[in-house]
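# nightly structure sweep
# worker-07 picked up a monomer target from the shared queue
# config: single-sequence mode, recycle default, output format = structure tokens
# input follows
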Amino acid sequence: MNATYLSALRLEGRQPVPRQNVSPKDRELVRLKGRLLCRITAETNNPVLQERLRQAAVEAESLAWLSPFPLLILPVLLEEKVREVRLHAMRQGQLLETGLEWQSLAE
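# output follows
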């Protein structure tokens, strides 16, 4: 669990519930997500983008659990989610540039 989540629980006066009986399959999926996420987040120094990539990884993991073969599905789902995050970031950058151009023309 990340520090922000734990801090939010503590602020609400709740404590995280420790998982009991974690299966090897659970651990392996978490390890796989971690390895994939390390490679992906290493490609950028932008902390906002890194956080969005982490969120995408959590979403991909959640969706992978719905499959009978989560270890096989996770890399594909994560790749798709990462593509969406990067496309969104690119569009936001383009909008920012366009807005700055319009602003400079208006002055």
